[in-house]
Amino acid sequence: MITQVINVNEILKQALLFDFYGELLTDHQKEIYGQFLLEDLSLGEIARDAGISRQGVHDIVKRCEQALAGYEEKLHLVEKFMTVKNKVKQIDELLDEYEKERREDILSGIRILSGEIIEEL
Amino acid sequence: MITQVINVNEILKQALLFDFYGELLTDHQKEIYGQFLLEDLSLGEIARDAGISRQGVHDIVKRCEQALAGYEEKLHLVEKFMTVKNKVKQIDELLDEYEKERREDILSGIRILSGEIIEEL
């Protein structure tokens, strides 16, 4: 169960990195790694489609994972976007609370969050 | 006057690109281009400090500008951040309006913007 959660998080993380930095990969890398990551094809299936060895696909996948992780290590833009997205979700949650009590607290909460996001960007 | 505005916007744009993608430049490029862009030193001053020719500094600056523009052309992350930042500023402006009339309109406006931002990210 824990393993499954870790795997799911890992896949989501890889998909985010691919979404942010994928255009910095070569077209060939993008095609192979995209099939592996998004189309959930096995290394063997991808190898057959691409006419390369299973090991070749494996090497490309590893190289892409390293390249994308390297871009995030340098730029931290996925991390930055996730921080902002989380704050905006908190704004939405505060709006959901609006019909309840302490309306002014909620509005000042939104104000604080929006200010933090502007600082972040 | 128009020329000045264009120049200011151009400098801001270059500073944003450098802020987002600068870590993808080499240390040498970062140092030279950073001095040119952020410390407002002349090519001659930078050349003397770095012990290279004025032309060498000029070439590095041009190469950095092209590299950073190339990253934005592929990733569009500065554009994305600016869109989000603009929407959050609109949320702040709506909060400023709150004390006036049509409070529910303002809250639904914030809701729409925060939803758009979550879609964006």
Automatic annotation (TrEMBL), chains A, B:
| Family to which this protein belongs | Belongs to the UPF0122 family.
| Superkingdom of this protein's organism | Bacteria
Q: Which UniProt keywords apply?
A: DNA-binding
Which species expresses this protein natively? Dorea formicigenerans
Pfam families, from UniProt?
A: UPF0122
Q: Which molecular function terms from Gene Ontology are attached?
A: DNA binding
Q: Could you identify this protein by its name?
A: UPF0122 protein DFSSTS7063_00465
Role played: Might take part in the signal recognition particle (SRP) pathway. This is inferred from the conservation of its genetic proximity to ftsY/ffh. May be a regulatory protein.
The yes or no answer to whether the keyword DNA-binding is present is yes
NCBIfam families assigned: YlxM (NF045758)
Q: Does the keyword DNA-binding apply?
A: yes
